[in-house]
């Protein structure tokens, strides 16, 4: 699943863009932004894989915004102006869409982004598809500790540290790494992000409530921006 945002200062265009995004099964719309400053705030607080970005916006254009990002996600430019295409591709954007955008052309750009997204993801499976990675090691104080993936129930991110809660231990493993780095070690769709600070093992979920999932007696919060992701994974209507 690719987590994306849409950035455009024109409400009608933004609404059409949102409608298109929601028709693509592998996209999850996290939020929308009406300008670059709102987009910056989202990127600082959310894990985003793809940005649909307008160019002509007040204060900071889409291209200026893109140049400020030290490690930008994948970007598809959506604009009414053909003249920025060369500069856009020099910034390694995935595609350059001219408004109005047909669904066919939009889907073609999304498919290209999805292919690049899959290529960028760490290869969790070895060449032999019958052999699965079942564990990994993390640093704990001065040791490397093995974590068996099937025993991971959920993960809590705390800035530069994570707590890994296992089904076989009362206390979590605490190690220095970001939740995004750990997310890349865990296989999809067995593990899903339900909050900017929480990952859960899907098969360990015992109940789902309005804003939490339960794993046994533990309640794990679900943020609004990840609810759609949860619904798609669990096939909740």
Major sheet strand order: 2-1-3-4-5
The residue fraction in helices comes out at 25-40%
| Tally of helical segments | 7
Largest sheet: 5 strands, parallel
Amino- and carboxy-terminal Cα gap? 17 Å
Net shape: elongated
Rg, rounded, reads 19 Å
Structural class: alpha/beta
Which runs of at least 5 residues are low in confidence (pLDDT < 50)? none
User: Helix and strand string, N-terminal first?
Assistant: EHEHEHEHEHEEEEEHEEEEEH
Approximately what portion of the residues adopt beta-strand conformation? 25-35%
Mean pLDDT over the residues: 87
Organism: Dyadobacter pollutisoli
Domain HTH LytTR-type: 143-236
GO biological process, one term: regulation of DNA-templated transcription
Modified residues (4-aspartylphosphate): 54
Q: Which structural traits does this protein have?
A:
237 residues; alpha/beta; 5-stranded parallel beta sheet; 7 helices; 32% strand; Sig_transdc_resp-reg_receiver; phosphorelay response regulator activity; LytTR family DNA-binding domain-containing protein
Structure description:
This protein is an alpha/beta fold and 237 residues long. It contains seven helices and 15 strands. It has helices spanning 11-22, 36-45, 62-67, 85-90, 103-120, 179-185, 227-234; strands at residues 2-7, 27-33, 50-53, 74-79, 95-98, 135-140, 143-148, 152-158, 161-166, 173-176, 191-195, 198-201, 207-208, 212-215, 218-221. The strands form four sheets. Strands 2-1-3-4-5 form a five-stranded parallel beta sheet. Strands 10-9-8-12-11 form a five-stranded antiparallel beta sheet. A three-stranded antiparallel beta sheet has the order 13-14-15, with no helix packed on it. The chain is elongated, with a radius of gyration of 19 Å. The model has no long low-confidence stretch (mean pLDDT 87).
């Amino acid at each position: 699943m690719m987590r994306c945002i849409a950035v455009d200062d024109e409400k009608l265009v933004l609404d059409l863009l949102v409608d298109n995004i929601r028709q693509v099964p592998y996209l999850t719309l996290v939020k929308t932004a009406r300008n670059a400053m709102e987009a910056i705030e989202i990127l600082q607080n959310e894990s985003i894989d793809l940005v649909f970005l307008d160019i002509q916006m007040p204060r900071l254009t889409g291209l200026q915004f893109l140049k400020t990002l030290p490690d930008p996600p994948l970007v598809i430019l959506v604009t009414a102006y053909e003249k920025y295409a060369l500069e856009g591709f020099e910034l390694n954007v995935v595609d350059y869409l001219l408004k109005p955008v047909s669904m066919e052309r939009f889907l073609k750009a999304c498919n290209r982004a999805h292919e690049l997204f899959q290529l960028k993801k760490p290869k969790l499976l070895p060449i032999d598809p019958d052999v699965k990675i079942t564990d990994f090691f993390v640093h704990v104080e001065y040791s490397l500790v093995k974590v068996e993936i099937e025993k991971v129930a959920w993960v809590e991110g705390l800035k530069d540290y994570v707590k890994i809660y296992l089904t076989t231990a009362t206390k979590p493993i605490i190690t220095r790494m970001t939740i995004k780095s750990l997310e890349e070690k865990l296989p999809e769709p067995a593990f899903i992000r339900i909050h900017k600070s929480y990952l859960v093992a899907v098969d360990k979920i015992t109940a789902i409530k309005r804003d939490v999932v339960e794993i046994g007696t533990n309640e794990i919060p679900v943020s609004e921006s990840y609810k759609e992701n949860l619904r798609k994974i669990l096939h909740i209507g």
